[in-house]
Amino acid sequence: MIKKEREKNRKLLTYEAFLRRLPENYPQRELIEKDYMKYLIGYKGEVATDFYLSELPDEYHIYNNLRIFEGNSYFQVDTLLLSPSFLVILEIKNYAGVLYFDDQYKQLIRTLEGKEEVFEYPILQVDRQRSKLKRWLTKNNFTNIPVENLVVISHPNGIIKTSTYLKEVIRSGSILGKVESFSSKFKQSIFSEKDLKKLHKLLLKEHTDEKIDMFTKYNIDQSIIKLGPCCPICFTLKVEKVKKGWVCINNCHFTLEELLKFSLLDYSLLFSPTITNSQFREFFFISSRYTAIDMIKMLGLKFTGAQKNRTYHIPY
Ligand SMILES: [Zn+2]
Is the pLDDT of residue 307 over 80? Predict the structure, then answer.
């Protein structure tokens, strides 16, 4: 049973907002697109795995993309399975090519199109997440909880090779069988209905999406970025101002509210989760303060501060 849906995380959405607003011929564009593709391929692998997760019986609670602060640092899991008697962390890798798990030197070597590449050893990665999860569970008075780890290879063209048998490494199709084997290993329930509810609330409450400052990360000046509203359907910035809003050059149909919300999400992802009236006008190329006030009212944005220097909070 899915308890937390898989959605594009804030990092992916930020890359998408950034790339549609970065000039086409900008020198670093290729590098940023490459980084974006890496994250997107990872996300697609997770989505492909959802099919196999849907085969699990309802007693398994599925939490996708969790990122929780455990006191020292964040633990981040692609999927967490919660059953009444144990937990499983799934680290999903959507790598194509020959994947050689070198357990002696703790490295993953991928050979693709004649090229060798080394990756962080996923078993170490998932072990680290497990230690952090266990610390967080203990902090919340859940002690001695069995937590199993799985590294799931989701790419149909990923060939697994290992230096020794690694029980944690599986293909997506084996998830159900592997989880069933855990359930025969851990027969005794450790979580009551009440515990499961408490843990559910805690996991959702403490989840925080990673925020990423693209300008610092790529050392790019904010002035490079194209401002203006964006079509919420085809994502073009080529929208034309008409009397009561904007129209898309591709004739997409949307309401003014949909366009404002979508464009403000870009603003929030790239610049700031708050906006003033003058920043709003600068971003949307609007000259009238009152037109801006009307639009902000339409969105019902919460604000702080007195009339003149009011700051509006973008809730997404
Ligand atoms: Zn459009």
Answer: no
Domains of the chain: which residue ranges? 2-206, 227-313
- The percentage of residues in the chain with a pLDDT greater than 70, rounded to a whole number, is 100
Tokens for 217, please give them: 């990360």
pLDDT in tens, 52-79: 999 999 999 999 999 999 999 999 999 9
Spacing, Cα 230 to ligand 1 middle (Å): 8
Beta strands in the chain (DSSP E): 2-4, 61-69, 74-82, 87-93, 97-102, 107-112, 115-120, 147-153, 158-162, 169-171, 239-242, 245-248, 274-275, 302-304, 311-313
H or E element that contains 203:
helix 193-206
Q: Quick one: fold of 2-206? A: Trna Endonuclease; Chain: A, domain 1 (3.40.1350)
Residue 306 pLDDT grade (very low, low, confident, very high; cuts 50, 70, 90): confident
Residues around ligand 1, an ion, CB closer than 5 A: 231, 233-234, 248, 250, 252
- C-alpha 282 to ligand 1 mean position (Å): 22
